[in-house]
Structures are given as C-alpha cells and as structure tokens.
Amino acid sequence: MLHRLLHAFDAPEPPPLPAPDEKLALGALMVRVAMSDHSYKFAEVHRIDLLLRRLFGLGPIEAAKMRATSERLEREAPDTEEFGDILRKTVSFAARVDALEALWEVTLADGVRHDEELEVLEDVRRTLGLSPEDSEAARARAETELGGSQ
C-alpha cells in the first residue's frame, strides 16, 4: 500500500516516438527553427499549427497533436541534416521548396529575424539541395503569405 501511495502521482510514461517520416521531419524542423533563438513564441506555435493544417489537410486538434509530437521529436531526435535528408529523399523538388517556404513562415512569424533561426534555415536549405535563389524565392512567398494572413 505504501508503494502505491508513493507512486500514485508518478507521471505515466509517454508513448514511444514514431519514426520520423517526411511530415514529422518537417514538423520537427519547423519547431527547431522556432526554438533556435531560445524563445518559442505563441506566434510561432500558431504559425506551425496553421502550416500543418494547410500542408497536410489536418484539423486543428490533429495539427496540435502533430506539433506536440514534432516538439518531442525535435528534443529527442537527430540533427537537422537527418531531418533534411528524410525530406530530400522522400519528396519532390517542389515539395522541398514548399517545406523551405514553411520554415521561412515560422522564422518570420514573430516579426524578428534571429541569427540562430537563419543558421538553421541555411543548414536545411543546403541539406534539401536547394539554392540560395530557391531560398530567397521561398522567403518572398512566405512574406506574402504572412502579409495576407496577419
């Protein structure tokens, strides 16, 4: 009985993380970009949820659950290059450009560009096999998207 009382308030073990597929890899990269400046703001969380809904056709609850899984995956999972490799090997060139645009949206969501976020974006760009010009075009589209949705 004493054992049950002592362990009554133990947190349950979280379910094991799924292996990252292209969706979770992108979700984890969005979280990584948002957290890279050590400030994970509501605007960034909200933008990630909106992007998950838009990109993968999820409802609000499913997007929030996917983001939560992506947050855990980002904390416990591999380096940026491994996430980028998953995307590079499993999705088309156009989808990789769309992924970079999504990462730009997260970077720009709080209205401030931080060097740490830009460094992660640059690492992802290279890993995805995209050019600096592809990144600039993705940034411009992200700015247009943010301008129309804020």
TrEMBL record:
<protein>
    <recommendedName>
        <fullName>Co-chaperone DjlA N-terminal domain-containing protein</fullName>
    </recommendedName>
</protein>
<dbReference type="InterPro" id="IPR007791">
    <property type="entry name" value="DjlA_N"/>
</dbReference>
<feature type="domain" description="Co-chaperone DjlA N-terminal">
    <location>
        <begin position="24"/>
        <end position="140"/>
    </location>
</feature>
<dbReference type="Pfam" id="PF05099">
    <property type="entry name" value="TerB"/>
</dbReference>
<dbReference type="InterPro" id="IPR029024">
    <property type="entry name" value="TerB-like"/>
</dbReference>
